[in-house]
Write a structure and sequence with these properties.
This protein is mainly beta and 400 residues long. It contains three helices and 28 strands. Helices cover 5% and strands 41% of the residues.
Length: 400
């Protein structure tokens, strides 16, 4: 892999012009993330760089997580070098009472920054055991890790210079209520409030007890603005449509989070998105548009893309292929580099897209320096691309 250099913007981008970018464009730059060795971290058994599953960026702070832990990691981006280090490790079990304690796997798959909070979501999924050396009996076991049922938010404390810390609460200087860490209630049983609520749904309910990666219920995307929380599902995919679960969250006197009642007395709504038969691997709400990373529901090798929905309406029940724009096709490498986390990052006032990968290629990692190399792509304007195709009489590149 080529040595990382400081991200450079094109003259066209610096001039502030709207330009269309090729779908299969290569990365604009790489960003190396450097982590502390796991032996010096609490409640971490394996290297963080092996299993980064989600990203969120605010200022110079790049928040990420390893899906084998119940912790959040922060590294600080240096625009002069194009690298991110000064790793800080946040143990969620020190703030929240987790049913399997601070060491239990949370399988965090979604991170989102909104209104001074970092929102965090576990997969809420079941998992099937791998086959044993002596036969397939182990595959009959379907397990539930109780920490996976986490959905909550933690206040961000602005330290200045683009540095943000996670704290249990922030006392305001005025008489407004303190901002505090909150989560939906959790229990050791798989019947968490969220899973129990969705188990009654006519579409999602039949898939709640299926393991993840077998079209079972599996949250892998999180996008938040205000009190609106979107959960992007890797599974189930129904009739070729990916699903988003929308909730309007509120703080309650018990100190927990709870979804409000929507129209019809339900506390959630479901939205169907045509991603050409794929599920959702990550999402990001960016200035009125929704960015969605697509991916296979199972462990299939598949081309992954980033879609954009302009002027996104969370109450619209269906988004068909022609109603969105495919803005980026990610390079495919058999056996590695499965895109799992996306986050816009601002470089010299221009938004780029940071992408992290599951099963990273060996060129992306270095055990000695605890390095993980992520990719940075120019972020196309979905609005200008859509307008260009409409003028040409096309339906949009997302159409089959």
């Amino acid at each position: 892999m080529a040595k990382n250099t400081r991200p450079q913007l094109s003259k066209r981008a610096n001039a502030g012009k709207q330009v269309d970018l090729p779908l299969d464009r290569g990365r604009a730059a790489t960003v190396d993330l450097f982590f502390t060795h796991q032996d010096r971290l609490i409640h971490v058994d394996d290297p963080i760089w092996q299993d980064v599953s989600a990203l969120a960026v605010t200022g110079r702070s790049i928040f990420c997580t390893c899906d084998e832990t119940s912790t959040i990691e922060r590294v600080l981006f240096d625009p002069q070098t194009g690298k991110a280090g000064e790793h800080t490790h946040f143990v969620l079990g020190e703030t929240f009472d987790l049913p399997e304690g601070p060491a239990g796997e949370m399988d965090i798959e979604g991170l989102a920054v909104a209104d001074g909070y970092l929102w965090i979501c576990g997969s809420h999924s079941l998992k099937r055991d791998d086959p044993g050396d002596d036969g397939l009996d182990d595959m009959e076991d379907i397990d539930w890790d109780a920490n996976r049922g986490f959905l909550g938010k933690v206040p961000l404390l602005d330290r200045g210079n683009g540095v943000y810390d996670l704290v249990a609460s922030i006392d305001p200087l005025d008489e407004a209520p303190a901002r505090a860490a909150r989560m939906m209630p959790m229990k050791k049983s798989r019947k968490t409030p969220l899973r129990k609520m969705l188990a009654k749904d006519r579409l999602i309910g039949p898939f709640m007890d299926h393991p993840c990666k077998e079209n079972g219920f599996d949250i892998e995307g999180l996008a938040v603005t205000g009190n609106t929380v979107l959960l992007g599902l890797r599974g189930p995919v129904l009739g070729g449509y990916a699903l988003i679960v929308r909730m309007e969250m509120k703080d309650v006197k018990s100190g927990h989070l709870k979804p409000r009642k929507l129209e019809g007395d339900e506390r959630y709504a479901i939205q169907a998105i045509d991603l050409n038969g794929q599920g959702i691997r990550d999402m990001h709400w960016q200035d009125g548009r929704l960015l969605i990373l697509s991916g296979a529901t199972t462990d299939l090798e598949a081309l992954q893309s980033v879609f954009a929905i302009e002027d996104y309406d969370p109450e619209r029940p269906v988004y068909r292929a022609g109603a969105m724009t495919r803005v980026l096709d990610l390079p495919a490498i058999r056996g590695s580099d499965h895109a799992e986390g996306i986050a816009p990052i601002e470089i010299d006032g221009v938004a780029k897209l940071l992408v992290a990968y599951d099963s990273p290629h060996e060129d992306r990692t270095d055990a000695k320096s605890q390095r993980l190399t992520t990719d940075m792509f120019d972020l196309a304007s979905a609005r200008s691309a859509s307008a260009k195709r409409r003028a040409a009489g096309g339906k949009g590149q997302a159409d089959r």
